[in-house]
Design a protein that fits this description.
Blueprint lengths: L1 H20 L5 H8 L30 H24 L35 E7 L2 E6 L2 E4 L3 E2 L2 E6 L3 E6 L2 E6 L5
Antiparallel strand pairs: 1-2, 2-3, 4-5, 5-6, 6-7
């Protein structure tokens, strides 16, 4: 986008400079400049005349012409290849009908209720550490160090285990390995 803005600013600057150099003209002057009558030319010897007919002169090619021609050629070749592929393989041309009726055997999604854990049952499903903050997924709930679960305090969360304190006893939970 910056390139376009730079180009527009450059064109605008050039126009402003051009307007400052040329005094403003009225429409009649512009029309007279554009529609000047041609002055008659003296007859010349046909053997020495140089062809100045603009129709017979070689047109100037712009730098944009080549990419346009290449793009058009590429599109034509691509279209021809697609036609050739479809003609050589008629199975691709068969239309597939899509019915709006539901399939005969539709499978309804089932929602499994969350597991209810017992009083002394702890399942450590995962541990996540973000900087200094560490959290553990125990019995499908998220806990941080210092919180309690079923009367037991979480005293430490490491990358592979969680330690719970139950009075004087320390319970160690490890992450389950997936099967």
């Amino acid at each position: 986008m910056s390139i376009i803005n730079d180009a527009l600013k450059k064109v605008q600057t050039n126009l402003v400079k051009k307007e400052q150099k040329e005094p403003p003209t009225n429409k009649v002057d512009i029309y007279a400049k554009l529609h000047k009558p041609r002055e008659p030319q003296p007859p010349q010897d046909p053997s020495t005349t140089v062809n100045t007919n603009p129709i017979l002169e070689k047109p100037e090619s712009s730098p944009v012409t080549l990419p346009i021609l290449i793009g058009a050629f590429t599109l034509i070749i691509g279209f021809l290849l697609a036609v050739l592929i479809f003609v050589s393989n008629p199975a691709l041309m068969k239309s597939k009908t899509v019915s709006s009726a539901p399939a005969a055997s539709t499978v309804e999604p089932t929602v499994t209720p969350p597991k209810v854990y017992g009083k002394d049952e702890f399942v450590l499903s995962g541990i996540m550490m973000m900087g200094d903050k560490r959290v553990a997924l125990i019995n499908n709930d998220i806990y941080e160090t210092g919180e309690t679960i079923q009367g037991r305090k979480i005293i430490n969360i490491t990358f592979d285990k969680v330690e719970l304190q139950d009075g004087q006893k320390i319970i160690e939970l490890s992450v389950r390995k997936s099967k």
